[in-house]
Amino acid sequence: MRGLFASLTLALAAAASTAMAEVQEFKITIKDHKFEPAQLTVPAGQKVKLLVVNQDPTPEEFESYDLYREKIVAGNSKVVIFLDPMEPGEYSYFGEFNPATAQGTIVAQ
Amino acid sequence: MFSSAIIVFREVLEAALVITIVLAATQGVLKRHLWIGGGVAAGVAGAVVVASIAEGIAMSFEGIGQELFNAAVLFSAVAMLAWHNLWMSRHARTLVAHLKRVGSSVSSGELPMYFLSTAVGLAVLREGSEIVLFMHGFAAGGSNGVSMLTGGLLGLAGGCALGALIYFGLLRIPTTQLFRITGWLILFLAAGMAASAAGYLMQAGVISGSRPLWNTSDVVSQHSFAGQVLHVLVGYQDRPTAVHLSFYLATLVLIGLGMHLTKQKDLAEPDPSTMKN
Fold first, then answer.
1. ipTM
2. Fewest C-beta atoms under 10 Å: which of A65, A81, B119, B126?
């Protein structure tokens, strides 16, 4: 079982490294359970790399129904999220652990 | 308190449904509670470990470690569920005959439990690590810990209650039909997991994604309660892409075909009632 698990992870990692082409990177910061910038503009029609930096001590889950993404960002930590090429338009996302304040949109143009 | 109850409930839901189906699928197996309990315990222990090294996992493999980890856990669970179904399609008739004749339990030697035990452990590991991260983060952050904890426990209780409800519903199915139905449930569960795993690989940028094929979020939102239960049970997604759909269908077809082929071998044998047991 552990062998299967390890080989799967390795196989995925190998596939990952070949798939890592150069993509444009954008940064979103979480502070006081809010996203900064709350509205981020990215180019439409191309893959985008998001760097989400959590400056709060509490964890947050970056979640977007529109973009089909969810990823936990531990407190005082950061994660990378890849976004597939988007049609021009507005895509909303939120912090699942603090949805009252943590709301944001990504505008593809 | 309420928000933490909901978050924990949503995380517990998937693991609870997997455990429920596994419990129903192992009806009549001696010591199955030990196997399944062991799987849950190992999953909880694993969840604490994973949560404690979450940051390391997340930043490994150039920032896509969390996705790769989730995909690997899901694919492993799919493999375990597939093995169980293949084994069952070969032996179910003998097993049912035995259960009907003796009217009591079969030993876990007659129905290997390690596949399902591992599948349960993996489901608990994946969902559990998110709960641990969430609860621990807030406890450490100092925001009213007691209320958070109460909410978390409420969510946990809610998830377990729902699992119990479905379990007792499944038990009303007669033994002769039960394994066939749990086999189907496990098949769709596995297909949904494979599609979710594909989703993580797309999020990680390992597989190129594409635009969703359709959007039924207005009909049943995947994030509504019904949508979430459907998501776990049959892999429902409101905005699936071609990649999601291909992983889903490929898993269905592969396991389904495997079940069909192993079953035919069984039919070729003379009389199931005279086989061992």
1. 0.73
2. A65
Q: Give the tokens for residue B87.
A: 């084994």
Stated pTM of the model: 0.85
Q: What is the DSSP string of B78-97?
A: HHHHHHHHHHHHHHHHHHHH
Structural domains in chain A plus CATH codes = 23-108 (2.60.40.420)
CB atoms under 10 Å from CB of A83, counted, come to 25
Task: Kindly indicate the confidence band of residue A109, based on its pLDDT and cuts at 50, 70 and 90.
Answer: very high
Residue B217 CA to chain centroid, in angstroms?
Answer: 23
Which of B5-14, B143-152, B261-270 has the highest average model confidence (pLDDT)?
B5-14
Nearest by CB to A74, which of B58, B62, B143? Answer: B58
Contacts for B197 with CB less than 8 Å, ≥ 6 apart: B70, B71, B74, B75, B78, B247
d(CA B187, CA B12): 21
Q: Which two tokens stand for residue A86?
A: 């988007």
| Encoded tokens for B253 | 């077809």
Domain boundaries, chain B: 2-274
Neighboring chain A residues of B7 at a CB cutoff of 8 Å: 96-97
What is the count of residue pairs from A and B with beta carbons less than 8 Å apart? 116
DSSP state of B240: -
Whether residues B205 and A1 touch (CB distance < 8 A) is answered with: no
d(CA B202, CA B28): 41
3-state DSSP of B148-199: HHHHHHHHHHHHHHHHHHHHHHHHCCCHHHHHHHHHHHHHHHHHHHHHHHHH
Smallest CA–CA distance, residue A35 to chain B, in Å, is: 18
